[in-house]
């Protein structure tokens, strides 16, 4: 039996191949994708997020995300998955209604697309992920690249679904959190159990919180 580690690739890359044109900042082996967006809350026009380079509409902005093109299963947070796109689009549509001036916590933030969009509306965004494979460094770098869209305070913190003994800083942030986001964090049985336990603990801490979870239904 081969001991070679299996690598996987997000299914969205076949749809956005023409968008992989920007140069990566943090790591030369990465790629950088431009995601065009428009929102009536930030710019005039209809809402939406798109990765198509052939879009003819007059988009108001372009989020640039550096990420891996393929990874092992344990490093999938270094890629962009469909759930992050859907959740980002939802926030663009309803940002001024549900997210304006809120304190937002994202679990499994990965390379930061959803957190960056949330930061266009929120009072503060706390982006968390497992500190593995330099994902937190990449997250910080993507925030810096898109700083001109960010309207609020940003925190990037380590959070492991299998370790509920949180740092003092993270505990303080969770006590202030009003909205919890999670995109594409359900893909492994053990990880899913850890996510549910983490979420349960977060919800047990006042104030009352609203949760938005986005995932793609997959058949294995």
TrEMBL record:
Domain of life: Eukaryota
Source lineage: Eukaryota, Metazoa, Ecdysozoa, Arthropoda, Hexapoda
GO cellular component term, pick one: nucleus
Annotated SUPFAM superfamilies: S-adenosyl-L-methionine-dependent methyltransferases (SSF53335)
Protein name, UniProt field: Methyltransferase-like protein 22
A molecular-function term among this protein's GO annotations: protein methyltransferase activity
């Amino acid at each position: 039996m081969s001991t070679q580690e299996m690598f996987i690739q997000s299914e969205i890359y076949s749809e956005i191949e023409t968008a992989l044109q920007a140069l990566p900042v943090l790591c030369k082996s990465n790629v950088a994708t431009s995601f065009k967006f428009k929102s009536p809350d930030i710019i005039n026009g209809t809402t939406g997020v798109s990765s198509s380079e052939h879009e003819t509409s007059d988009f108001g902005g372009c989020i640039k995300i550096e990420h891996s093109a393929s990874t092992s299963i344990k490093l999938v947070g270094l890629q962009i998955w469909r759930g992050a796109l859907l959740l980002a689009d939802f926030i663009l549509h309803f940002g001024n209604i549900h997210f304006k001036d809120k304190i937002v916590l994202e679990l499994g933030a990965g390379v930061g697309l959803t957190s960056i969009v949330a930061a266009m509306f929120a009072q503060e965004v706390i982006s968390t992920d497992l500190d593995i494979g330099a994902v937190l460094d990449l997250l910080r770098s993507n925030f810096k690249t898109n700083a001109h869209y960010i309207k609020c305070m940003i925190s990037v913190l380590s959070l492991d679904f299998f370790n509920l003994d949180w740092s003092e800083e993270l505990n303080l942030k969770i006590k202030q959190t009003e909205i919890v986001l999670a995109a594409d964090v359900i893909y492994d049985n053990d990880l899913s159990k850890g996510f549910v336990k983490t979420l349960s603990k977060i919800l047990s801490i006042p104030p009352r919180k609203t949760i938005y979870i986005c995932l793609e239904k997959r058949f294995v």
